[in-house]
Amino acid sequence: MTAPLTPPPPPHDHSAQGSWQPPAGASGAPAPGSQHAEYAEHTGLGWYGQDDGPGMKTELREAGLVALAVALGGVLLGVLWWWLAPHVPLVGDVTDGNWVVYLKDTEGEQAVGVDGTFTLLGLGFGLVSALVVFLLRRRGGVPLVVGLAVGGLLGSLLAWRVGVWLGPAQDVVAHAREVGRGVTFSAPLKLGAKGALLAWPLSALVVHLGLTALFGPRDPEPEFGHGAYPPKPAG
After folding, report:
1. Residues 80, 166: contact at Cβ < 8 Å?
2. Distance, CA of 160 to CA of 195 (rounded, Å)
3. For residue 2, is it left (φ>0), alpha (ψ between -120 and 50) or beta?
4. Could you identify which of 53, 91, 92, 130 might form a hypothetical disulfide with 207, taking C-beta atoms 3.0 to 4.6 angstroms apart as the criterion?
5. Are strands 184-186 and 89-95 parallel, antiparallel or unpaired?
6. How far apart are CA 163 and CA 168, in angstroms?
7. Which of 46-50, 159-163, 213-217 reaches the highest mean pLDDT?
């Protein structure tokens, strides 16, 4: 008689022994003490050189402060516009007992010069504000750029109203009666081309984006020992 065959061992029951646990580092995160973890901890960067930044709340707060500070600069722009813009000469006369006001120099270009002065000042303020913001915060970011543009637009609107308020009286007929018939006086400060209001925000956007592209911080290239690359995250 031959000896009975030994029965095969029973299959291993994973449910009885507990669920299987993956080894450390299998989920894509670097294992503690590994070379990749030491690199990420040393540089402060995540995988593939990504930097989490200061956080969205901090960026929104900084963008709000930038917009407020830039907008307040519109007061200075309005004063400069009122001071540097050419005067448009008007003359009052009486016709059939009614006062009429007309341009003294019908071929003059003073009105165009008023709009041009505002536009040039807006371009200059956009350049300066973009440079200051870039020097104070080189990291940049979408909220910061939006705050800079919004501040420039609000500053242009404020400058427009300040210049009109500082300029000559808006009631030209009353002004003509005050100075007398045939006496030259200056027309109210008026912005004919409303597109000039966009000179400041557009200039600030272009200059800031250019400075960021040329001199902004760069993410450091990851350096892994022996030419190895970080493992691709699972999933």
Report:
1. no
2. 12
3. beta
4. 130
5. antiparallel
6. 10
7. 159-163
Helix 56-72 to helix 74-84 angle (10° resolution) is 20
Name residue 91's beta-bridge partners. Answer: 102, 184
> Residue holding tokens 């291993």?
12
Using the predicted structure, report yes or no on whether residue 220 has a pLDDT greater than 90: no
DSSP state of 90: E
For residue 212, give the amino acid letter: T
Question: How is residue 152 written in tokens?
Answer: 């420039």
User: What is the pLDDT at residue 46?
Assistant: 43
Give 105-158 pLDDT, tens digit per residue: 877 788 899 999 999 999 999 999 999 999 988 877 889 999 999 999 999 999
The token pair at 218 is 């760069």
Strand 184-186 to 98-103 pairing: unpaired
Q: What is the dihedral of CA 177, 180, 183, 189, to 10 degrees?
A: -20
Structural tokens at position 12: 């291993």
- In sequence order, what are the residues at sequence separation of 6 or more whose Cβ sits closer than 8 angstroms to the Cβ of residue 72? 155, 158
Q: Which of 228, 207, 234 is nearest to 36 (CA)?
A: 228
Mean pLDDT of the chain: 79
Categorize the per-residue pLDDT at 1 as very low, low, confident or very high, splitting at 50, 70 and 90: very low
